[in-house]
């Protein structure tokens, strides 16, 4: 899956937070729901216009972002 086709950043939508394209639902929203204990099926029940692929794209976006984080140690 290429999350770049599903997640977009528009400075005019949600202050430029990464969102599911065509919605105002941010990656942060989805990650927050999952961190609070919701599973994919529960999110889909609450937001039937979303797809499983879109939710997985949010996870892929977060994983890719974490992969590019660099820790700088100062002495």
From TrEMBL:
Superkingdom assignment: Bacteria
A Pfam family hit: DUF433
Leader sequence segment: none
SUPFAM superfamilies: Homeodomain-like (SSF46689)
Coiled-coil boundaries: none
Protein name according to UniProt: DUF433 domain-containing protein
Lineage, highest ranks first: Bacteria, Pseudomonadati, Bacteroidota, Cytophagia, Cytophagales
